[in-house]
Write a structure and sequence with these properties.
Strand content: 35-45%
Largest sheet: 9 strands, antiparallel
Order of helices and strands: HHEEEEHEEEEEEEEEH
Number of strands: 13
Radius of gyration: 24 Å
Structural class: alpha+beta
Shape: globular
């Protein structure tokens, strides 16, 4: 009897070992348009984050900056970029929501420049992401965006040069979502200026040329006749939005 029971147990174990384990079903891959619309809309709750910005200069060591970011729904955001050498006051950029565009407008602008593809993005700030690659019509990769699968928050961005080398990486390394954020932090103390990419602030004007910097990079806007021109290393979509904001302000 005892041998029979042991034989039955061994047979059951052998049967279980022969049954393949069912793999956990993979999350359905969303479309690029869906991810971009979620990222541009922003999460439905306030958040606080620490962001690490790296600028890669050919032949030199990368420049690293740290930024403190707080945000509320409606396009309100405050970003304080601290100098690389921890000396001097931070560069403070405040968005009060007045320059927020609709997600569909932002998506249309991206689609006018790039072809978009989606792949698995791994984890950023301990959160699962989808990666969206933005390529020019000739196939050159210009930007990559990592979007949080749960909240839609843009957690990481990379910008590439035309030769394929990495120019800039912006990555959230610490995130509190949701977080209690003081609405008073998003009040502007000066008149609105043309829209500027995240982290860039107005640093001065000379001879009709306005300069903007994020502490490691810069670009300038100049009036030439009746046209504005931008000099500096900005991605196509950012440069287009800067110029559009100037046209809207006229």
């Amino acid at each position: 009897m005892e041998k029979t029971m042991m034989k039955v147990k061994l047979t059951a174990l052998a049967f279980l070992a022969a049954v393949p384990l069912q793999a956990k079903p993979r999350a359905a891959r969303p479309g690029a348009d869906e991810l971009i619309l979620r990222a541009l809309a922003g999460p439905a709750a306030g958040y606080a984050a620490v962001e690490r910005v790296q600028v890669f200069v050919p032949g030199k060591k990368p420049k690293a900056l740290k930024a403190s970011v707080t945000a509320l729904p409606g396009g309100r955001m405050r970003r304080e970029v601290f100098p690389a050498k921890r000396k001097g006051a931070p560069l403070i950029q405040v968005r009060d929501g007045r320059d927020q565009e609709t997600p569909s407008t932002g998506l249309a602008r991206l689609r006018s420049f790039y072809d978009l593809t989606v792949s698995t993005g791994g984890r950023v700030a301990k959160r699962k992401t989808w990666r969206v690659d933005l390529r020019l019509r000739d196939g050159k990769l210009r930007r990559s965006l990592w979007v949080d699968r749960d909240s839609g928050l843009l957690l990481k961005r990379e910008t590439y040069r035309f030769d394929g080398s990495l120019a800039r990486r912006e990555r959230i390394v610490k995130l509190a979502l949701p977080a209690e954020v003081d609405p008073a932090a998003f009040q502007r103390t000066s008149a609105p200026l043309p829209w500027a990419p995240d982290g860039f602030v107005f640093i001065g004007e000379r001879g009709g040329v306005r300069s903007y910097s994020n502490g490691a990079e810069s670009y300038a806007i100049a009036l030439s006749g009746r046209e504005f021109t931008i000099t500096g290393d900005l991605a196509e979509d950012d440069a287009a939005r800067v110029l559009a904001s100037i046209a809207e302000a006229k």
